[in-house]
Amino acid sequence: MSSEGSNADRNLRGDKALRIxxxxxxxxxxxxxxxxxxxxxxxxxxPLRCNWCDTAYAFSxxxxxxxATILQxxxxxxxxxxxxxxxxxxxxxxxxxxxxALCDAGYAVSLETSGSLDxxxxxxRVSRIVDLKAPDSGECAKxxxxxxxxxxxxxxxKIVLASRADYDWAVAASRQRRLFERFTVLFSPVWDTLSPQxxxxxxxxxxxPVRFQLQLHKVLWGSTPGK
Length: 227
Known about the structure:
CATH architecture: Alpha-Beta Barrel
Shape: globular
Distance between the termini: 23 Å
Structural class: alpha/beta
Number of strands: 9
Helix content: 25-40%
Strand order of the largest sheet: 3-1-2-4-5-6-7-8-9
Largest sheet: 9 strands, mixed
Order of helices and strands: HEEEHEHEEEHHEHEH
Number of helices: 7
CATH topology: TIM Barrel
Number of domains: 1
CATH class: Alpha Beta
Radius of gyration: 17 Å
Strand content: 15-25%
């Protein structure tokens, strides 16, 4: 993969920089790409404080890097698939330039976003994995429903569930907004809170056209950061 892009792209990008929590190579643990070797770029910062958040270490700290340096770090892994995540990556304005630069360099790029911020300016080549926050997250009021109208066939919706109340909310919201007919929708249990077997049973009983998922990285490595 090229780590530079065209001269015009580099001129538009300039010396834009982002605050980076970590860059690492692992297996994708979520979405329809689960199990795929992936380079993760975790950006620092998030405006939300979900009750079950497992990346609170990315709320602050990190290292400021220009986009050119990020591309060099990514290229060193020689992996064609890249995921930009957080925190909430779109909380940094230069995330949009980073996503475009990664696409220009030829990577297959996905973005993991909380769904609370506008996704309309994200490069259309990027696959957007958009969360909907269920009530037990404590951030349900922050869902930006307008984002649903911006989604394309290669984008996905993820809903993390901590209880039966969360599940009932997710089913009702999905049916009301016709999410099952329009998009790939993924339900996943909060790790160590909702039994995966219980969530699976509800999905089967209700014959829901959703994709059940576990956080594969936690099955393999527990809660270790950078995996």
